[in-house]
Amino acid sequence: MENSSRYSSSGVVRQPGGNFSIICQSLSKGDPEGMWIDYQNSLQYTTPLFMAQLCIVSLAYLVIKYALKPLRQASIISQVLSGVLLGPSILGQNDFFRETFFPQRGAMLFETVAGFGLLIFLFGVGVEMETGRMFRPSRTAVIAGIFMVVFSSLLTVPMAVLLTRVLTMNESLKNLLPIFAVSQCTSAFPSVCPFLKDRKIINTDPGRIAISISLFSDLIGMSLAIVNYSLQPILKDSIGQPVINTIGGLISALSFVSILAFIIRPLILKLLVRLPQEKPVSESYIMAFFILFLTCSLVTEVIGQHFAFGALAAGIVIPPGPPLGSTIVRRLEYPIATFSFPTFLTNSGLKTNIFFIQSHHLLVVCIIVLYAAVIKVVIMLVLGKFLAISRTESVVIGLMLNAKGPTELILFNLWSDILNDEEFSLAVTVGVIGIMLIQTPLIVLLMKSAGRRTPFRRRTIQNLKRDMELRILVAIKDQESVPSIVNLLEASNASEESPVAVIALILVELVGQAAPILIAHQYSNNNLNVDTSSSAQIINALRQYEYNNEMNVSVQPYTAVSQSEIMQDDICRLAVDQNATIVILPFHKHWAIDGSIGSVNRAEQHMNSKVIEKAPCSVAVLVDKGILTGSSTILNSNVVYNVAMIYIGGPDDAEALCYGARMARHTNVSLTVLRFLLFGCDNARERRFDNDIIEAIRGANVGNHHFIYQEQVVKDGEGLASALRNMENAFDLLMVGRTHQDSPLLDDIGAWIECPELGAVGDFLASPDFHSTASVLVVQQQRFGGKLINRATKPVVNAQDFMYDNNSSTHSVPGNNNSSSHLSVPGSCGSDNSRWEFPRDRSDRV
Asked: Does domain 6-449 have CATH number 3.40.190.10?
């Protein structure tokens, strides 16, 4: 028997010449008794052979995945290529390897598991599909979906017919080429969505549009698939009464869909209403839905449809997202991602033999595949002019819609009766692997270039004019941090001449739903939401803050439902759209009431690092320790909110100082600026910019008794750490810049940094060793392309009576410069034995 034989799930092996052979399964036990008892090769038994196959397949996948990692290829390529590597194309050429690990007697079990893996995968995809976006698509999705399906087919199929008449090829390929061209015109959701999720670009603007188009295209595709399967008796002419059977097939398929849509789904929706909120779904419900999806797959096979349609339809009737959809997807996530579905992809590669491919046939298939891909991009470019989509995004969307995957592999396996070995190998290598190898790097490069061309203007508090609105985007993960966030917003001192606009982004992890969504919450009355959900309570607290600062504060709440690893894109995107001045992020560590670290969220830390890296404005990380002080709020109270600004030097400290200076004008806020000077180095050139901004802020706060300025000279990092420890429990909020210039002051503190996103000083203040109940706000000034803003730019000070002297780099300050600030160390240099003057009583009244 030839090496290139392909196996069917029935245990029948088809020879390259078209002959069939039946492989008889051994009736021996499935498990060996061990090498010390029966003295036989364990791989002669079914179970050990299957386990060995899974081990080899998984190992090959990991090797290829890491080998292709520099090329940024999708995981589906690695999975299919692992099958090509182990199949007759490469390692399968060795008789010992083929007969030992992939003999013909093991084909039936391997393909059965592969088919079941595909079944589970399609059920999970169906659960994630949003029926609202599928059956009530947007105008863009409808127009683009229809044009993609219709015009790509009208332009690609005639091209395939033309090639059959112009180029030399055998009769089999001539008959197949138009059908193969149709498969390249599809934009299937089960192929597009996993690719976008794998590349972490599903929540970008092009990704959202591509998902919407693929959902609508799938609606058309599934309708055509039902008709196609119902017409099989006529096409094959293998039944005595083809018309009657065709009508019966259509009626049974429509009846199946109707039962799911009008009986099963309403019952599921009623069930969800009865499920307790914020509690896990019962195991009995999960088991019932697994039985439902298996039953639907069986029914579709009985009525003449493919089992994939039943699994997908069963998933679609289940509402995506929590509580039911997310629970089901969580249960399926591990077997789908690491076991079942990769087996199906690898099995397609095992059937591929590149040695059967002839060069002139390869040229023909390459032409039609590239032509179909270019047609989709051109169609999207034309539509982009009418749908207000930029050229770059149109090209990216067109390439995304060319994503190939399980849908195409299902088609090629279904066509095994009409495909010979060469044609199947051409379909897999060119129609799936080849196009994905080319387009994936193109999408990555185009997405990067589009991001580099995004126009950024200066968005910092330091450059914010006094009469301009301060726009704060605050990311919220849970309601426990809301009191500290409200305190920070209240301390930001909203006024008539300088109001505060709060863009509240509630972050919800996306599970059980394919496409991320961004919800803008609207309300038109003053009644608080009676909903008891976590998001509703967060919105109510922010609305209460808005009501207490009427006419001076506006709050626009949003909810971003997205995967945890790509939430940073939603934050940065909303910051650009809403012209945010500063983004405030939650810290990934959360404190318990006894002062210890209660929980750590590494995904949140990754999100913060990415936002800090590419935010279009200034960024701050709030280390919330409000739970240690009872999470009290300063709204409508006379309690003084003591804020300390630690100034060492640099643009980040300058940004934090400008934010603190704004707070100092609040009647219930006391700001203490603590400046550290390195002994003997105060006359350095870089110090001039720091002196400018500090003198400007001090001059702007003449007469403000809530503004205190102190200096201390230290010799090294140990002195700095000792001075910082003296601040423990003296303040409610500690502010500091994220990065500083290289200085001996940071040598000891920065030696062991656990949280790089906080910088050296911020990490020290947020560490459990720093015994303080004060929250910490670590500020980073806006970067341009990862670089700091030119520090030669003079700061915009929030004071009307403060003026710059155009002839000098120093500032002229009217009035008495010492009337509103305290200086513990006069002069530029001095002893490091000076002590801070702290407001030790944190219950001071105004």
From this structure: no
